[in-house]
Amino acid sequence: MTSKRSDQIPIAPDSEGAVLATLIFERDIPLDILEQITMDLFFLPANRILCEVIIALRARGIMIDPLQIQEEVRARGLLDKATPGHIEHLIHGKVGLSNVQSHIDRLKELARRRQLRAELSKVIDLPTAAEIREGASKIIERDIAPLSRSGEERTPVQWPDALNEIAYHGLAGDLVRAIDPHTEADPAALLVQFLVSFGNLIKRSAHFIAEADRHYCNMFAVVVGNTSKGRKGTSWGQIKSVLGSTDKEWVKNCNSSGLSSGEGLIWQVRDPIEKHEPIKQKGRVIDYQDVITDKGVDDKRLLIVEPEFALVLKTASRDGNTLSAIIRQAWDDGNLRSLTKSSPARATDAHISIIGHITKDELRRYLEDTETANGFANRFLWVCARQSKLLPEGGRLNEVNFGELVRRLNNAADHARKTTEIKRNEQARELWFDVYPDLADGKPGLLGAVTGRAEAQVMRLAAIYALLDCESMIGRIHLEAALALWKYCEDSARYIFGDAMGDPTADSILAALREVGESGLTRTKISDLLNHRIGSAAIGRALESLAEAGRARFIKEKTEGRPIQRWFALTVTAKKANYTKKADSKEFTSRGSCEISEISPEDGDLNSLNSLFSQSAQENGDGEESFGEEDYADYDDSSLAALDR
Question: CA nearest 376: which of 450, 428, 464, 299?
C-alpha cells in the first residue's frame, strides 16, 4: 500500500492568493470581510509580508494598489522575499467578493490545524510514511483503507447557500423586498426577525397540536455573523420600524431586553400575586383572606431582543442561574415558575419570543456543553447573516410607501388573533408525510443537538406563513416556505458548529486523530495528548461517542501482554438536508439555472426538495427580484485531503 499520509504543512496557496488578490484589486470591501483577514491566515512568507503591508497601508488611509504595495515592501527591505512578479501573479487568483468568504474560512481551518500540529509535535513524534512499520501498514490496508474509501471525503463547511426564493413567500417576502434596497442587512436576517416578531405580535391564540402538545407561534432565533460588522442589529431596526405602524402598544410595552435571570423574565409576564393574610379581631386571628399584592401583567406578549446575546449565554452558565430553564419553559408551554423560595411570581400562558445577535466566535465560545445537551440550543433558529451591500448614505427607507403592506399586515394580525387551531390541508399533509422522516432523523454531534426540534420548528414557521396569508389551514406552499427557511437555518448551524461533537474531550481527540492520519493513536498517547487531565472513564466515553457517530474506529493490536487499542479518524461529510416530496400537477423543479417547469404526476414518485431549493429562481412569475445569487468556486485541496485521510 502507498500511504496517503502527508508530512506537508497544511496550507492552501490558491486560497492565500485569492484572499490577497481581493485585498489588492477589489474596492469597497465590506468591513466584516476585512476584519477576518489577519497575518495568521497565511503560511507562505511572501504572502504574510504582503498581508502585513496591506494592513499597514489601510491603517494609514493609503489607497491600495500594486505599485504602492511594491514601494512599501522596498522601503522595508523585503523586496527579495515579496517580489513584484509575485504581486502581479496574484491577479490571476482573483475570485470576487461573493466567493472570498469560502477561501477565508478555508484558511482559518488550515491555520487552526497548523496550530494543532505544533501542539501535537510536543507530545508525540509525527511519523512519516516511510517510518510506518510494515505490520501497521498491513493492518491499515486490511481494516482502515476500505472504510476510508467507502466514506465520503471531508470538505470544509462553507457559508450556507443563499436562502431560496420560496422562503420569501407572501407578505413576509414582500416586506423584505421593500426594505432590502435601503439596508445593508442580510435579507435572511430581515425575514427571520419579521416572522419571529409577527408570531409574537398576534398573541397566544393560533396554534397547532402535535400529540398532546400545543405549539403556538412564539419562536426564538439568533442571528449569527462572522464579525461584529454583520449588520445584525440593523436588520432588527428596520423590521421594528414597520411593526411599530401596526401595533404601537406592542412596540412600547411588549419589547424588552436585558435577560439576566429566570426570575426577572417571569416578572415581565407575571400573574397577579396573592398573599394569604390573617384577619384579626382584637388582636386575635379569626380567619384568613387572599389579598392581591401585585396586579400582575395583563398583556402576556413579550419580545426580547438581545443585541449582545453572548451576555445571555454567559449569564445562563452561572451556577444557580435559572435563566436557561425558564427560557425552555417559555418555548414549550409558556407556564413559568421558579422554585426559588424568595420568588413568588409565576406566569401562565406567557407568549415570549426571543431575537438574539451574536458573532460566530462568541457563540462557539460561550455556548456551554450543558446548554446543548439540555435542549436550550435546539429551541432557537440559528441564522447566518452578513453585510449584503454598502450604502454610504444609509438608503432611503423613509421614502418607501409602506401603506399597502401595513394594511395587509393589520389584516393578517386581526385574522391570526381570531384563529384557534391550525391544521394542514391535504396537499400539505402529503408533503409532511414525505419530509417527516428526514426532519425526525437525528444527526450526530453538536449539529444534531442544536437542530433537534426540526419538526416543531418547521410547523411553527409554516403556521406563521399561513396566518400571514390570512389562512386558517397550512397549505403546501406554506410548508414549502417553512422547509426552505429551515434548510437555511440547518445549513447555518452546520457552518457555525461544523462537525464538532459538543464534547470538548471528544473534539480534542478527533482533531488529534485527524492530524496524525493513518498512524492513529493509542489510548496511552491520547491520554498523553490531554496531559493526563482527563480520566480514563471520560476518555472512554468520548471515544465511544466518536465511534457511535461514525467519526472514529479502533483496531486491536497484539502485544506481549494485553492487546492495545489504536484509534483512527474516519472521514465522513455531514450530509445536508434532503427533504423529499411527491410530485403533483403543480410543482417546480430545477432546469438549468433559473427555468421553472411543471411536473406531471407520471414524471416520478419522489423528487428532492433540495432540487426545489437549489434553483436560482431569478424570476417567479410576477417578475419579483430574487435574493442572494452567490456562486462559490470549487477548489481542490490535496494537502487538506491528505491530512484528513
Answer: 450
